[in-house]
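Hi there, hope your week has been kind to you so far. It would help a lot if you went through both lines with me. No rush at all, and the record is pasted right below:

***
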Amino acid sequence: MNILRGLGILPVLLLAAGECHATGVTIGVVAPQEGNFALLGAQIFAGASAKAQQDGNTIVKIGESCEENSGAAVADALIAAKVQVAIGFLCSETLEGALPKLKDANIPAIAVSVRSRILMEDALKNSWPLFRMAPPDGAEAAKIIEVILRDWSSAPIALIEDGTIHGRELTEAVRNALEEKGLKPVFTDTYRPGQDQQIALVRRLKKAGVTKVFVGGDRSDVSIIARDAKAEKIQLDLLGGDAMRAADQPLALADGVFAVALPEYATRPGAEATVGALRTDGVEPEGYVLPAYAAVEIATKAVQDAAADERPVAQHLGGVSFDTVVGPITFNAGHELADNPYQLLQWRSGAFVQPNGQKQ
């Protein structure tokens, strides 16, 4: 059911907004409240509400259906609630319809999830006030390329992928960039995912003389490849992408496997106090909880700065370094993260940690 269809549902949206009434800054939080993404939406609402309540500010919760043509009604609800900034947004469909109206109302949007490059290009072309905390398309591949060129350039490497769209496109981007730099893999292949064993694959890797392997595939497949390589006494350094941040099952991942992935923000030293407070209140700081908390930190600071010099809030978002629970955040001239958040991590004793002595 499309809960956002038509302007006639605007009163319903506002009735269901679930405002935390307070004085000060008023921030709209847009996220799914029902359907397949409701759990992720609950994480966004929890993180945003925690920070707003701490500061005595107002949160206006707006449901997001992620359906086509739903964004205009979301924007109308935000405008009617007189929010000063809107954060959240899991879906590009919402932003596509909302941003033109948010521009006219001088309400910037801070997205914690949407990564569409085309959407951001449209936003910049039309001067829509979109700022993105999620890394853009290509950021994962860029970090993988950086790591391979830095750490593996003198070794025989292989690039293998699982045949899925993401795995294939990610691996192809890596291969093209490496070959442009004069680094040609000695082995490339598409393996069949979801198998109980990959012994034939690891034997072929050994025959090719490979010692370093990038895997464009799921964590479960990497676990099997690592197990079978060990059983065959084949020394392979394995590197996966952000898909490695998944459940450690059905086969546990072997220590030593690398991943280029987004960090676990809850483990940051600077996040300890916030994480402790959230858990005391019964909120597990997982998924989008801390990014949403950080988005409210950013929004609050921008609104306060705007009040001090009477410039639009959006002008206080770009080029400013914000100290947040997930680390320093700066939006560049393209309204994207100035720094690539992906990091090289290594699996040790049940968690991904920074490799000893490695630069990030």
Remarks:
- The two ends are 44 Å apart (CA to CA).
- Residues 1-22 have pLDDT under 50 and may be disordered.
